[in-house]
Batch of 2 targets.
Target 1
Amino acid sequence: MRRTALLASATLLTALIPLASAGQAAGAGDPAPVPVDRFEGEVPFASQPAEGIFTWGGDSDDPPALQLTARPDAPEGAKVLTGTYDISGYGGFTHDFAANLPAHDWSAHQGVRFWWDGQDNGRKIAFEIKDGGANGEASELWTTSFTDDFSGWKQIELPFTAFTYRTDYQPVGGIDHVLGLTQMWGYAVTLPTGAPGRFAMDDVELYGRADQALRASVTTDAPVYPVREGTTASVRVTVATTGSAPLAEPVTVAYRTGAGTARPGTDYRPLTGTLTFPAGTASGTTRTVRVPTLNNRSPQAARTVPLDLDVTGARAPAETPQIVLDAHGLPYLDSGLPVRKRVADLLSRMSLEEKAGQMTQAERGAMSAPADIAGYALGSLLSGGGSTPTPNTPAAWARMIDAFQLRAQATRFQIPLIYGVDAVHGHNNLAGATVMPHNIGIGATRDPRLAERTGAVTASEVRATGVPWDFAPCLCVSRDERWGRSYESFGEDPALVQSMETVVQGLQGRADGRDLSRADKVLATAKHFAGDGGTEYGSSTTGTYTIDQGVTKVTRQQLQAIHLAPFRTAVDRGVGSVMPSYSSLDVIGDGRGPVRMHARADMINGELKGRMGFDGFVISDWNAIDQLPGDYATQVRTAVNAGVDMMMVPYSYKDFRTALIGEVRAGRISERRIDDAVSRILAQKFRLGLFEHPYADTSGAARIGSPAHRAVARRAAAESQVLLKNTGGVLPLKKNQKVYVAGSNADDLGNQTGGWTITWQGESGTHTRGTTVLQGMRNAGGDVTYSKDASAPTGGYDVGVVVVGETPYAEGVGDVGNGHGLELSAADKAAVDKVCAAMKCAVLIVSGRPQLIGDRLGRIDALVASWLPGTEGDGVADVLYGRRPFTGQLPVTWPKSEAQLPINVGDTAYDPQFPFGWGLTTLTAVPSGGTGTLRALELAAGAAERAHAARTGRAIVTKARLIVQCAVGQNMSAAVAKPFADADHLLLTGHYRAAVQRLTAAYRAA
């Protein structure tokens, strides 16, 4: 997430630019203005380590387009910087100083100013400067903003006293939290989101004489001080200076208790006084102000006492500290009462504004000020993909979330936040966490108990960082592998998806919710309701996406059997929240045409909450209401009335809350609907134990990325490997074989973990801790030589292993036709061709979906679908070297060509490269037999089915499958593939005898 900025060399520019032309004249006694950027071409468009201007953004569409434009109305010189933008996430541009030159000293000046061509659109423009550190990418960020509420050119002056330390993001976690101004690296402009725009800017310069208060600052140790009634609040006041030098001049801090909601003389003793830090006081010196509170013993909501600070000689704290007398004695605070009674009591006390806040979720990096948590009574925050604290460590996560929870203590009823993350295959935002295989690999394991264990590891690592809520699991039934989210699915068969929903218990514990308050459990989210995996290719209207967020067109029966079935299972398993899909649903015959899921009251209120009996709460997807028809108020009304209880509005949380309140007061959303939504949210907060323990329980932090957790991920990686072909028993490898390893994905942890790893889209390379496939092979004791592009000589080797596949992507960015395809890259094809021509070879495909390999299949001795195995490449090596047998089965159909898509088990026409459920084994004792053996297995399967002996039934069908696979070999045909795939579906649905019958049909067709 690149939101940093660097400056042009002021020294260089001063040499190039006559000061007489650099902006307005200096005031009397002021130093002359120092040019920073004239935009005449003296600074190139470039990035570090060179000096230059560069753009950045949340995804490929977000960086603005910049150019230097000659304009006759330029305030200075002939050219100005112009740009256009259309930002959905975040975006802007940076001007960096060269990293190999010294930083600049701005301490002699009052501030920075520039000319801005106003569009009078009322939008806020953020401006950042960078202080200290080794270079522009390793410095502290300080921010302020101005509003574009004027037309034409205007000089914007931003005094350094207006800049505040960024609390949501720091590149290196902060340095000294003091704006020193003696080591400055540059500036950045963050442009507004939500609508297209344009801008023009000219002549950035330093102006005025420095305010002496910039050399020292006064801070308090916290913004909020919750205390029990009758105890004393201690506020620590600290003075710090630039460069940690002693104070050159005295600093005084006059304090007094201000006007809050607490009553002076009844709730606390009023207090006034002055703290003095004389000249010569050491930087970091602290004084303490103690505010005694009184005990009146009557049950009360929380009350606040602001401690007003008047600072002379230094910068004052960014906000007034608040002493909070904790709420006490009210029924909702009694943990011994049933949840429903606690909810009813709290709800009866809340205002409409407080209820609307509970229905609002903001992105932690988008809050304009942390005080907004209390100011808007926010109910929830989230970290989107890549939105992490700095440094990205478990301790930093816990500190960050505790700081947010502290803010919530300043609200009237001290309702804790519920913080959410997309931990979709482990705590994947956290560097060093255990990253599991993506769901498609978990589906390939066919191991529900292992799926539950992966969920338990994820929950443990997530909760240990203070996060109680996970936006997982994805219960989509992927019906077209061109979809960029197909790896988030357990498979193409709803029965397979349902069987893997044991992961819900891994995340949450028992279905009745009694385990949610444990320090190793989190609230799970079933997503995306419903039909996101069934969207038609070419139906998306989102940017350049081709299938994601498109239209699912199905009959009512198909909807129930394929796309709703997994959610019925999730509700039965007690899942605590559900997220609707971006996609639209077009139910054939209902006369409505395509309707966005966030607007389908018949599905959310009617099907999910009504017929399924879901009693958790519904959370929208990221900015999803913006895709609904109508103006913003209509979008809010539509989604809330459809049954969405909490809205994920990352950047527009203020607008949503205002619109929601307005719609209720206008009578277009009923108060009963609001009460239903808030009751559902509060119930889960009570079940999670957040009222009793709002802060992070880090007792489990030592287990994050631990050997025990990685052992679970390693086993999952091993069991996820699907052996598609194994001519001549090339696999498993032997330790004494000389192995030639090649391919783009053999030694790339980022490609191996895929999207949703550290960042939203993921990235190639090493960005977290783990073991690549190559490292795993070496750890296994293999005699391995590695040449990524197979350029090293190939002579003298016993076998080659070529690891190829995809690079990371997420969501519609990865749609086929949106810069992605199902073919291997030219480099991967060349590596396969060279190695497989020189020796016996095994090809491993590391990917989120099947890759088209048929034209090379005849030259490949062994083929493995490795999926996206996560951080534990040792697990892949375990099956390659026979430490574990290959046991995985295809969770999706492997097509021969893209023209066959979509292709799924149960299709009338079904002639794939490999059928659903296919998976060879390297077990030492592979069963053998013919039609007689299969007949005996059929009878035994029938007996197991009648006895409801599921484990026995599955074992019988597995034995029959292995017999059939041995008979089929590579002689795959439609006559074999269809009954084979049907058999796996029948197994998943408990029809063991019928499964063996279909396998017998496949055997006879072989």
Target 2
Amino acid sequence: MFVQKIGHGFPLLMLHGFPLDHRSLLPFEDFLPETGQWERYYIDLPGLGATRDDTKITCAQDILTRLTAYIDEEFRARRFAIVGYSFGGLLASALAAQYGSQITSMFLLAPETVPAQERRNLAKKVAYHMSDLPDSATQDELQAYKTTAVIYSAESFEAFRRYIYTGLVANAKNPAVEAVMNHPSLDRSPESYLSDYHEPVMIITGQHDSMVGYKDAFHLYESVHEGTFVCIPKAGHNIHVEHPDTVRALFQRWLDGIGEQ
């Protein structure tokens, strides 16, 4: 399992989206307070990124199985918190059921809650042109960027190219990607997994997320016992690269809650 560990203190397990890698969550390094009390575990999920050759993946459940084996070995009885982005949010819901209060809290960013894409309640795709995109952008980069972007700006494009597009490229022609796309569901639904979890959960969604939407995540309201739900206006799927200041404020509030437990 590829893991980039940064810092010391209370562990934060960073679970990226699909089909990306750990770099998609590295913007969170700029969201952390200067107190330096958090140890971040940026992993490449089994079958993806730098972990793609470690094991054969035939479905989403395989990724969860390999991930829990890593958690058992790495953390044992140690408590930790989770940041789950998109597909990482789906995995986080299953981990909550398995580890319970050992996971002190979860921060779910644009979480995938309906694995089958054709069943998702998606928002209408819109775009707001804020500034011209750089001339250096390739057609492949622009196409990938415009698929999810809501705020078109040079700043958000550069962040997308650095943190998101790199993972897409790294997983090109990866057989695990096709396998998970064909078998995207876990054994249970997020609602079922989260119904027995009693620790704080913060769920951040984008109003114009055309990948997973926001309405499906808000349906978790009936299942989450201690939840904070936020829908950010003029935001798409990559909320943390489009609205970094807003996500930073919410993330720091979440971290403060862990410190108060």
